[in-house]
């Protein structure tokens, strides 16, 4: 009997090779094997081709399972379509309402997804459209190709585990979906975390001049990202961009696709509950081979990489090192991938890896610092939205209005020169040429204005996008720390151990905040300098052009 | 019996001291003596005060005369209100439609008026409102205070004279209102001009490298115009601006009011039929004591003076010298004024003063040159209207849009700095200050943009205004020369004398065209240089400000 599947959601073919399928339609599958999240088959109208695996349910003898079933047994699973964003991230995303009304480039949005070993090797494709469609609850078709995010799964499995062996005297939070709970912060605080921590996994928080900070990476490195190259596969029907990464500590180039970054991102988010993992540049379904988008994504990835390599904890972690150094050997890659996905030191266990300074922090002081930082991030977030809107508008004005004005002036001078050229007397000729040249100079200046924003405003906008991502992370980070503090205050009995564990969370949080400030000051200083240098160069170029024009009047 | 007058037009009092009067109302005059074109009296409602003399008709025993009656006996006189613009000028004005759709500062418009000895000393006042109201035919109240322009009067009296002794074999033009006729060009060509020409009045056209040109002024000079001072008179009810003029050849300052310039202008226009007398800057009734207007008029007068003193014929003529050199001695002034107004060498007789090069010009060549110049002026006129519109719009954009954009960027940077200031760690402080300073720098640059047009666009606009005036003059000048050429072609019989006289007109016309081109090349070269130097200075100022801001980031 031919393998059949029931269609769960309408799908309209958008590319050659795809076929449209309708809800409740029965389709015949040519194979059960997915190709990058797609199945090949024939619809009821006899059309053969590809459709998203997640849009159908394979009909089997005994069990009916969504092909993307990932272990969720909650009755919600069916109604809530699989999401490619972790709960944590999508929470913070919706809390902040990032990008709303900003008119900016929406750099705050990001995407994470996580493949299982099975579908990893099948390589889902970048061509999946509309991955950033807003997701409602129930009835909404899933984004394809997509898998449920691992952080959520881990979170919930952990939760089950915790509930199973719940015996601590300190009460658990009622809201089992709070970040404090999901991150593992609560489990750690209650002493429920346990894992074997190797020396290499140990992360040190040291007491610096300005408070707790991550111990510096003794072997700092950076990593370049080359221009991506377009690759095609899957009989040429699907194509993707491949980025060449060259870390300075190996100096060996490895090739990675956006989905590899995406996978890595998901690993990092689940691994480090109080570290602000830089957001990846926006995933874009359409026009992603267009030069502008490629250039913008590459710039975004460069910033992302910069923040990865300059973070003492993130830079050194195994999964990132695997990502940066594993070559074309598929087996080695798969091994590292599996290891990362089975890493025990995630969530609650992450806190087990942290060594703190000898003297515990003053709770009051921590609380006040965290409050201050909360105010800081709120204001910074509000104001960089304004800055971003303003400079994007300024860029638009320069590329349109300013350019047009200078060019109109240039053209009118040229018209003046043309009128004057009707007088061909010797003493006129020099002036006529000079005026014509002045007209051209103004037209050129118009072009300068149009080209300039790319040099000195876009980079600021890129930076702001990255920071909007960080600012979106911090509410969760602060939430974890606050959850711990609250718990400690509520239950003064278990002071000793609870305090120690709370101190670990506080140290890590303050170290991360310190790192944020340091990086922020470094980044904004260098970006403002870059901007001003570019602007100076720009106005000098205009001046030179005008001086050139002025000289033409000396001809007489 | 009290002196009474009948009101010809409604007048609504606009200033203290004035009274309203209605058409057909009878008013009682306190005195027949006009004060600057105003009479003092009492209206039928018993209100006493000033009203325009030209709005009433004094009731006498035998004759009914408009107080401004100037010798016109045509029945038209009553219906056509007195105009302050000469026929010639208003013709050319309407022909060109100058300023229509230009959106510019309307520099093409100008005003001339001419006082008789009687009302001169009464000093009509600058405060006459709305002197540039468009004038319809009939029914429209006259502009006050005002007198009929002398050129028209002379033209028509000459015309009568010509008709009286008409005996030439060459026919007269049928259109007695053509410029060729009114300027005296026809009369001269027909040998009807006669006057005694002193050596000092002789004007030489010499053959230069580029054709006929005015003999250079052996004693060139310039004349400065100081900032005007406000004077009040007439019991403080009327006030006016007085300009201090200091010509370099006497180095003695004389004080002149706008109406003196106006009077001089009228003399020059009637005196020199084929010379382009520079137009005076626009007369403006309201807001004329406002700084902007005063500054604009002064700049216009400076340009006007520049063109007067650099014209070999205009600079040397008696009436201009009288204007420049006559001091506060009222008697001397009145004497020179009377002499100028009785000058016989106006119109047709002007051509008697011209000496030409020995070899007469080739008619064909003259015709082709004139045709070329006609095309030139047409194109130049069209194109400077576009330039003027463009740079005025550009100025507006810089003063509004550009300024706003830079200031918005500055403000957004300041907001960023303010957010950052919430983090008061030592390593943040330098950056915070630098960003705040950068914000201020951008706000300052916004101001620079707003202030700049005054420096480098307004002067071009002023220059274009002046040239639009010249371009408005040339159709009449060309008309005179063409009228002469046509007449010569029509009547080959009288070749000898007619040709000689036509040659004189051609030489004068070409000399004036040559002068126009020379002045134009000189003015536009220097103005474009000025503009570019200003622009360079402007962009250097911006660069310096940005460099200053950049340095603030080195503080760490």
From TrEMBL, chains A, B:
Positions contributing to a 1,2-diacyl-sn-glycero-3-phospho-(1D-myo-inositol-4,5-bisphosphate) binding: 257, 259, 297
Membrane topology value: Peripheral membrane protein
MF terms (GO), sorted A to Z: phosphatidylinositol binding
Composition skew (Acidic residues), residue ranges: 116-126
Locations listed in the record: Cytoplasmic vesicle membrane
GO biological process, one term: plasma membrane tubulation
Keyword annotations: Cell cycle, Cell division, Cytoplasmic vesicle, Endocytosis, Membrane, Mitosis, Protein transport, SH3 domain, Transport
Sequence ranges of Low complexity compositional bias: 83-97, 156-168
SMART domains, per database record: PX, SH3
Positions of the UniProt region annotated as Disordered: 66-170
Polar residues compositional bias, start-end: 66-76
PANTHER family, per the entry: SORTING NEXIN
This protein's name: Sorting nexin
Higher taxonomy: Eukaryota, Metazoa, Chordata, Craniata, Vertebrata
């Amino acid at each position: 009997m031919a393998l059949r599947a029931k269609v769960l959601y309408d799908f309209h073919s958008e590319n050659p090779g795809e076929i449209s399928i309708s809800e409740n339609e029965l389709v015949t599958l040519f194979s059960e094997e997915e190709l990058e999240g797609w199945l090949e088959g024939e619809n009821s109208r006899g059309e053969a081709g590809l459709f998203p695996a997640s849009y159908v349910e394979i009909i089997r003898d005994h069990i009916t399972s969504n092909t993307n079933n990932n272990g969720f047994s909650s009755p919600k699973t069916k109604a809530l379509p699989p999401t490619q964003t972790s709960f944590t991230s999508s929470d913070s995303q919706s809390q902040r309402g990032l990008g709303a009304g900003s008119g900016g480039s929406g750099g705050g949005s990001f995407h994470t997804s996580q493949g299982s070993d099975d579908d990893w090797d099948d390589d889902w494709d970048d061509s999946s459209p509309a991955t950033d469609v807003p997701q409602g609850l129930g009835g909404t078709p899933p984004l394809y190709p997509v898998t449920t995010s691992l952080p959520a799964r881990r979170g919930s499995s952990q939760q089950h585990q915790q509930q199973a062996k719940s015996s601590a005297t300190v009460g658990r939070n009622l809201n089992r979906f709070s970040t404090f709970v999901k991150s593992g912060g609560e489990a750690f605080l209650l002493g429920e975390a346990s894992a074997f921590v190797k020396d290499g996994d140990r992360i040190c928080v040291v007491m610096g001049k300005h408070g707790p900070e991550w111990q510096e990476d003794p072997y700092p490195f950076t990593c370049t990202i080359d221009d991506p190259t377009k690759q095609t596969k899957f009989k040429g029907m699907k194509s993707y961009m491949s980025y060449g990464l060259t870390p300075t500590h190996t100096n060996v180039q490895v090739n990675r696709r956006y989905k590899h970054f995406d996978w890595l991102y998901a690993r990092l988010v689940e691994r480090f509950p109080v570290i602000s993992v830089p957001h990846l540049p926006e995933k874009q379904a359409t026009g992603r081979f267009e030069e502008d988008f490629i250039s913008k994504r590459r710039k975004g990835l460069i910033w992302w990489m910069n923040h990865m390599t300059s973070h003492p904890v993130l830079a050194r972690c195994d999964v990132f090192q695997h990502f940066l150094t594993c070559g074309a050997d598929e087996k080695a890659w798969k091994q590292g991938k599996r290891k990362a996905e089975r890493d025990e030191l995630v969530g609650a266990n992450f806190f087990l890896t942290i060594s703190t300074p000898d003297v515990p922090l003053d709770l009051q002081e921590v609380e006040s610092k965290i409050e201050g930082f909360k105010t800081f991030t709120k204001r910074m977030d509000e104001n960089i939205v304004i800055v971003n809107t303003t400079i994007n508008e300024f860029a638009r004005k320069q590329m349109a209005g300013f350019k047009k004005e200078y060019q109109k002036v240039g053209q009118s001078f040229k018209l003046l020169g043309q009128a004057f050229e009707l007088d061909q007397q010797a003493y006129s000729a020099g002036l006529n040429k000079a005026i014509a040249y002045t007209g051209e100079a103004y037209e050129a200046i118009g072009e300068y204005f149009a080209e300039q924003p790319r040099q000195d405003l876009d980079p600021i906008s890129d930076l702001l996008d990255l920071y909007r991502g960080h600012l979106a992370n911090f509410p969760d980070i602060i939430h974890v720390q606050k959850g711990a503090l609250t718990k400690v205050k509520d239950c003064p009995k278990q002071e000793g151990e609870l305090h120690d564990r709370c101190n670990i969370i506080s140290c890590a949080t303050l170290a991360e905040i310190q790192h944020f400030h340091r990086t922020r000051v470094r980044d904004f200083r260098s970006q403002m300098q870059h901007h001003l240098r570019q602007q100076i160069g720009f106005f000098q170029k205009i001046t030179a052009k005008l001086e050139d024009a002025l000289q033409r009047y000396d001809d007489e």
